[in-house]
Design goal:
There is one protein chain. With about 150 residues, the protein is an all-alpha fold. The protein has five helices and no strands. The chain has one domain. The longest helix has 28 residues. The mean pLDDT is about 90.
Length: about 150
């Protein structure tokens, strides 16, 4: 039961960190990396009502991916023996996850998104999502490491 609670808390915090990064990127008009509204508007077909469904889907997916990361942590032998083992492993998983999401986002999602605003997913959007997933993986590793210290 403790691992489930730890996974949920880790997932929410890590997804939150990733989301804050994407909000900054979007808020400072670097690129439109508003993943939450983009996901929500896939469901609602408009941006006005996209925030709540986007938050729900994004944070649930983040929590599920956190469970996968933590499962992988436990499959890697001797990972817990290194003080930064979970952080390094989480960051590496974030890199892989980020590459996959960036490719998927720019190739499939953007081309078929119902809103014109999200059909323009160029290199900057891909890089921002890659970095966001690296942050996510780092945070999963960090929060999980801290949870193991108690």
């Amino acid at each position: 039961m403790e691992i489930i609670v730890t996974s949920i808390i880790t997932g929410l915090l890590s997804t939150g960190a990733m989301s804050i990064f994407l909000w900054f990127v979007t808020g400072f008009n670097i690129v439109n990396a508003d993943m939450i509204r983009a996901i929500g508007s896939l469901i609602t077909r408009d941006e006005k009502n996209a925030l709540l469904p986007g938050l729900f889907i994004h944070f649930n997916a983040g929590t599920i991916f956190t469970c996968v990361y933590i499962l992988i942590f436990h499959l890697v032998p001797n990972l817990s023996k290194f003080s930064v083992g979970y952080i390094v492993c989480g960051s590496l998983l974030g890199i892989v996850h980020g590459v996959i999401v960036s490719l998927f986002l720019t190739i499939l999602v953007a081309e078929h998104h119902p809103l014109e605003k999200y059909k323009k997913a160029g290199f900057g959007v891909a890089v921002s999502h890659f970095l966001a997933h690296l942050i996510f993986g780092f945070c999963v590793g960090l929060v999980y490491t801290l949870s193991q210290l108690t």
